[in-house]
Amino acid sequence: MGAIATEVVSGLAIAQDTRIVLTVIDGLGGLPHPKTGQSELETARTPHLDKLAAGSVLGLCDPVGVGITPGSGPGHLGLFGYDPVRHQVGRGALSALGLNFPLQPGDVAARGNFAAVDAQGCITDRRAGRIPTELSAKLCARLRAITIPGAECFVQPETGYRFLLVMRGAGLSAALTDSDPQTTGQPPRPIRPQQPEAAHTAELVNQFIAQAHRILTDERPANAVLLRGFAERPSLPSLTELYGLRPAAIAVYPVYHGLARLAGMTVLDTGTDFAAEVETLRKHRAEYDFFYVHYKWTDSAGEDGDFDRKVALLEAFDAHVPALLDVEPDVLVIAGDHSTPAVMGAHSWHPVPFLLHAKTVFPDQTTTFSERACMQGGLGRFPATDAMPLMLAHAGKLAKFGS
Questions:
Q1: Most buried among 141, 147, 277, 372, by the most CB within 10 A?
Q2: Is pLDDT above 50 for 375?
């Protein structure tokens, strides 16, 4: 399939009292383990997903494009129906939106990691051992003592090792490179301007980083900071404006709240595990007609290179599939925002498994939910932006095109 123009789909959208549940398993896709030749999904015991696959239609979707490794932002935006190339949103803005930080015009936001560096200043752990949020909050409080002439700095903890940095002042620009080299064994990179007008902002951010490292020098394991995804406040048409939906989001981590708010979704209060998320879905079923439900933990395991833990987390998700079906969605999609193979320990460019279940599907011949099964699925391989028209059509929310 080729991507359908958003304006075409938007023009066909009609109101129907039907429910769509888009369930995103973060970092879903994997690669075969060198010892077994089986991916995480193929290794996991997932009887409920396999049974669901037997009555569904499957495929593989490219979050951004063939060969492109996506971040979480573009990976989600494609599934929500937005062209992630046309609508590029920096991670810093998503973090700010996720924390409900009041970004003002001209503010520059960045996503921060607390990290560990050795005596030579080289990164030994980009995530500082995944420190708990409580410690991150204490470290953020210390960083709020930083003063930069010409800019006001706001530092807020996100979740775990993550934090938000917002700089406010005259003439700031988000056209900056990242300090995070995305690997260990190297020092953090100096922030550099991508455009001449960003040179002053780069200077200010480098001052912040230098002061942060002096403050954290005696901390263990978090004695450094890494910054990436510099961005200003974005603007997107909402899913209500585009498709007339009443959309809601159910997620634990703040950055996914930011993605949801960017798309005009109501972020529902929920608990800290997936059982609580499913209960939140059940509780609010009648109030909304589009639900985005996020399962985060598989991505973290993949990034840590922990194949067995990712397998266990896929099996844990599988146990919740009957409860998702008990909500009786008219359309249920199980998808991922990107692949995070544990054998790579990072996001990758590989297409992501996709399952669509509805009364109106023509089930294909797949009987399991895995990468190889999805290769044989009836949907084939398609761009993630086609997911939204597929969901809308099977929910009866698209009118006929043409006479």
A1: 277
A2: yes
Name residue, tokens 């996506």.
70
Asked if pLDDT for residue 144 goes beyond 80, the answer is yes
Nearest-angstrom CA–CA distance, 61 and 43: 21
The percent of residues above 90 in pLDDT, for the chain, comes to 94
CB of 39 closer than 8 Å to CB of 373: no
Angle, helix 72-79 to helix 254-262, in steps of 10 degrees: 40
Which residue, chain included where needed, has tokens 């929500």? 80
| Spatial separation of the C-alpha atoms in residues 283 and 323, rounded to whole Å | 12
Q: Which of 345, 34, 366, 303 is nearest to 162 (CA)?
A: 303
CA distance 280 to 293: 10
- Residues of the chain by 3-state class (helix, strand, coil), percent to 5: 35, 20, 45
State how far the Cα of 378 lies from the Cα of 103, in Å rounded to an integer: 44
- Cβ-in-10-Å burial (0-12, 13-18, 19+) of 124 comes to middle
Mean pLDDT throughout 270-288?
97
Angle (deg, nearest 10), helices 47-54 and 307-318: 60
The rounded distance, in Å, linking the Cα atoms of 156 and 113 is: 12
pLDDT digits (tens, 9 = 90+) for 60-93: 999 999 999 999 999 999 999 999 999 988 889 9
At 365, list the tokens: 């011949």
Ordered by start, the domain boundaries in the chain are 6-89+237-394, 94-231
pLDDT, tens digit, for every residue of 22-38?
Answer: 999 999 999 999 999 99
The residue written with tokens 């429910």 in the block is 19
The DSSP symbol for 290 reads E
* Spatial contact of 353 and 28, defined as CB atoms under 8 Å apart: yes
For the cut 80, the answer to whether the pLDDT of residue 51 exceeds it is yes
For residue range 168-219, list pLDDT tens digits in order: 999 999 999 999 999 999 999 999 999 999 999 999 999 999 999 999 999 9
pLDDT of residue 90: 86
Is 330 in contact with 72 (CB distance < 8 Å)? no
Q: What fold does the segment set 6-89+237-394 form as a domain?
A: Alkaline Phosphatase, subunit A (3.40.720)
Looking at residue 99, the DSSP 8-state letter turns out to be: T
- Read off the DSSP letter of residue 234: -
Q: Which residues contact 260 (CB under 8 A, 6 or more apart)?
A: 247, 249, 251, 267, 292
